């Protein structure tokens, strides 16, 4: 989901210059693009269904061909591979676009899908991915002064659903969403740290917890059951609407954090462990959006799925920053953000 959000400004640059924009996307990002003014056509790839069937299932092949025909009949002039991995390679090479553009820093032989390679290295750990993506626009001679995030309009039905979810919330206090889970274990901040933060914040804030059914045990441990626990009760659209009504969202490097700052309303604290905060943190107002890690010499280790260190150093990045440091940031953000609302 983060990959989709990070590249919405790039799509908006093309729209501003009069291009027609199509976007190939799988399940996680489809709801963010359907009805989004940044794109004209959304091509939905049911990757999860294909994987469940087995990649060699003939039904997958025929569905792929049908989708490919829809793409090719538009006769796109340019295809850009922002993901730069094998799963985007085969869409690039079969797209029918005259110009197929990628950057030099690819993985999994993705360069083979392109016929133009821009020299910029987009994998810099110190440059935000939003700005790195603009190198494609610069290569094509577009003006890149504007960074514009857009999301689809929320339906009245979803607004009523969120009204119902929040009907018992104490709106006289600052509204804080805690979304502590993500897909990769090494990106999780220590659960005891979360528990200490929750114990302190629930005194003065209305705490709202979000996550999937698989996150229920974690949320219960850190204190969600004593507050407003929406675990399993929100989808992507209702989560966007929820974020548009609260003062602060706290999360690890996750889709929830990215969605929160893209929505534009709440302040955001994103707690990073193994991944680089300067590259993937909330983009924009540094006084409203905070991306923080513990400042350890081994951070970030980025693409690793498990901690390479042994003994006392193992997963040390998941234990820092300490709760008191996060609580101080929360208090400053809430004081500033609620004063401006």
Secondary structure elements and pairings:
Layout: H1 2-16, E1 22-25, H2 27-33, E2 41-44, H3 47-53, H4 58-72, E3 78-80, H5 86-94, E4 99-103, E5 116-118, H6 129-139, H7 156-165, E6 175-178, H8 191-201, E7 206-209, H9 216-222, E8 228-229, H10 236-243, E9 248-252, H11 255-263, E10 267-271, H12 277-280, E11 289-292, H13 323-340
Parallel strand pairs: 1-2, 3-4, 4-5, 6-7, 6-9, 7-8, 9-10, 10-11
Total count of strands: 11
CATH architecture level-2 label of the largest domain? 3-Layer(aba) Sandwich
Distance between the termini: 28 Å
What is the average per-residue confidence, as pLDDT, rounded to a whole number? 93
How many helices in DSSP terms?
A: 13
Task: Give the CATH topology of the largest domain.
Answer: Rossmann fold
CATH class of the largest domain: Alpha Beta
The radius of gyration is: 21 Å
Name the structural class: alpha/beta
CATH superfamily of the largest domain: Glycogen Phosphorylase B
Main sheet record: 6 strands, parallel
Integer tally of domains: 2
| Strand proportion | 5-15%
């Amino acid at each position: 989901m983060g990959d989709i959000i990070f590249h919405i400004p790039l799509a908006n640059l093309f729209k501003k210059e009069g291009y027609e924009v199509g976007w190939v996307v799988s399940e996680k990002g489809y709801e963010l693009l359907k009805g989004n003014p940044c794109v004209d056509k959304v091509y939905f790839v049911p990757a999860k269904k294909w994987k469940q069937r087995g990649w060699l299932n003939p039904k997958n092949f025929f569905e792929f061909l049908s989708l490919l025909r829809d793409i090719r009949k538009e006769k796109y002039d340019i295809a850009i591979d922002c993901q730069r991995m094998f799963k985007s390679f085969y869409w690039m090479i079969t797209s029918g676009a005259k110009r197929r553009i990628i950057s030099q820093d690819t993985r999994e032989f993705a360069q083979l899908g392109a016929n133009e390679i821009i020299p910029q290295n987009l994998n810099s750990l110190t440059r935000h991915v939003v700005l790195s993506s603009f190198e494609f626009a610069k290569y094509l001679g577009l003006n890149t002064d504007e960074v514009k995030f857009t999301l689809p309009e929320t339906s009245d039905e979803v607004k009523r659903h969120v009204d119902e979810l929040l009907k018992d919330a104490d709106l006289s206090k600052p509204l804080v969403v805690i979304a502590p889970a993500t897909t990769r274990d090494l990106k999780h901040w220590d659960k005891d740290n979360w528990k200490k933060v929750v114990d302190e914040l629930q005194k003065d804030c209305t705490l709202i917890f979000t996550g999937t059914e698989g996150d229920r045990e974690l949320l219960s441990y850190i204190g969600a059951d004593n507050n407003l626990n929406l675990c399993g009760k929100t989808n992507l659209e209702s989560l966007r609407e929820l974020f548009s009504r609260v003062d602060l969202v706290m999360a690890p490097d996750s889709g929830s954090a990215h969605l929160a700052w893209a929505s534009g309303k709440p302040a955001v604290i994103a707690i990073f462990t193994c991944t680089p905060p300067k590259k993937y943190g909330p983009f924009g107002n540094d006084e409203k959006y905070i991306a923080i890690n513990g400042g350890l010499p081994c951070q970030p280790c980025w693409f690793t799925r498990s901690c390479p260190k042994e003994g006392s150093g193992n997963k040390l990045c998941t234990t820092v920053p300490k709760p008191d440091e996060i609580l101080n940031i929360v208090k400053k953000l809430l004081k500033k953000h609620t004063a401006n609302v």
